[in-house]
Design a protein that fits this description.
The chain has 67 residues and is mostly helical. It has a domain at 10-54. 73% of the residues lie in helices and 0% in strands. The chain contains two helices and no strands.
Length: 67
């Protein structure tokens, strides 16, 4: 099983949102509210992009470009 993670802008933004939400929670007394609401969006951005890339790669293998 080969795992390949390609960094894209959506993944970088997802990680930035995650770190910013942790920072906001630390500044607000470790309430966890910002992290709790941002985590589903971060998971959706990262896994959604991985699935889109996987499907794009599968269609590229089916229909190769003419040389």
């Amino acid at each position: 099983m080969k795992i390949d993670i390609t960094l894209t802008w959506s993944k970088i933004v997802a990680v930035i949102v995650l770190f910013c939400s942790v920072w906001i929670d630390i500044r607000n007394g470790l309430s966890g509210t910002a992290f709790m609401f941002s985590l589903p969006f971060v998971v959706f951005l990262i896994t959604g992009k991985q699935l889109i890339d996987m499907k794009k790669e599968a269609t590229e293998l089916k229909f190769p470009a003419e040389e």
